[in-house]
Predict the 3D structure of the following.
Amino acid sequence: MSYIQAIIIAIIEGLTEFLPVSSTGHMILADSLMAIQDKEFAKTFEIVIQLGAIMAVLLIYIKRFFVGLDIYMKLFVAFLPTGVIGFLAYKTIKHYLFNPFTVSVSLIIGGVVLILLDKWSKEKVSEYKQVEDISYQGAIKIGLIQCLSMIPGVSRAAATIFGGVFSGFDRKQAAEFSFLLAIPTMFAASGYDLLKEKDNIHSDDITILLLGGLVAFLVAIVAVKAFVAFLTKYGFKHFGYYRIILGVLFLVYALYTGLEMTA
């Protein structure tokens, strides 16, 4: 992987990690278009640089973690299903599902879901005054729905935002809980992947990983703030349209060019 390729992928990560469009899906599609040869390192790079995006959210929402222990417990409960299933199914998911075909189909299906969610949540009033007021039952619902995001192209943000609205949040609160839940979820995913692949990461790779993390951090700060403002004003439907268009275009492109879709 070249430095230019690393920067491009990190920008994509920072822009899309907290949007309901699937950062992993976008990076897999980018890998295919740029014909990156070292696919195993590319998969590890894409997961590890999420740490940079996490730090952006931690910086923006740091005050949330000083209001009491409730938020920690509810985030842990919401994280637990993904943590357990991810640990058990890690190798299978990474080997069989990280491909452009899975991403394209997931983008299209998820786009339809977001359009429907936009209509359903348009006038929704939150059942909770603050994000940390969500019930433990609501937190576990969000966690169970988050498990779907292990399929590339589904989007962790889309799944948890859907789960948040379904569990009683309004749009803005659902997005904020999704941001906060990303911290333990992505720390665990990135840390586990780094641990599993440590023997395959060479000293030359460290610079690329650090560069990618820094770029993802800087871009994510801007993306998170812009997303909340956009979501409040326009809702989810535009993200749904975007997902459907991107998924269809990539399928057509792959059929036209003969691109390998399941590698």
Observations:
- The first helix runs from residue 3 to 16.
- Residues 3-257 form one domain.
